[in-house]
Design a protein that fits this description.
Number of strands: 0
Radius of gyration: 22 Å
Largest sheet: none
Shape: elongated
Distance between the termini: 17 Å
Oligomer: single chain
Strand content: under 5%
Length: 171
Amino acid sequence: MKEQFRSINFNNYIRYIKLILILGDLLFLNLSYLVSFMIRYDHYDVFFTRDSQIFIFITNIFWLYLVYHFNEFTFNRTDSIEKSLSKTLRLILYLFLSLVTFSELFYFHNLNRMGFVTFFLNFIILTLIYRIVTIQFLRKLRKSGNNFRNAVIVGSEDIGIEIYNAYRDWE
């Protein structure tokens, strides 16, 4: 498996990981909203009403703001999965509280408590599974050694050669 990761040069794609993670979050947010409509009404016709469209748009905006504000996609190598998942659950709680406040301020006809709870339970389950898979993938990617950059060694004679040999042996 390690050779398989080494054969692909991931250095070119590292900068796109945050974008992929955000797009995955938005995909699962919208998917859980659709699934909650299917569970509640057994059809998607209600989803295409104006209130539903506005609500899912506001939900996406709130989620993007929370992810940006709390810097959700900064993974440290030493952080445990539990810490990352608790950070995600905190964000989902903030999203829940902000959407409850928003839905109480502006009355939406298609929202009820059971649908709201179904939506958030679906979102919690999908997001936590997505986070676990993502964190495990990033750890495997980092362990494979594909996240190195070129370096310039500044040193004279023996010290510079020692540093060079240390980096060369590390691969």
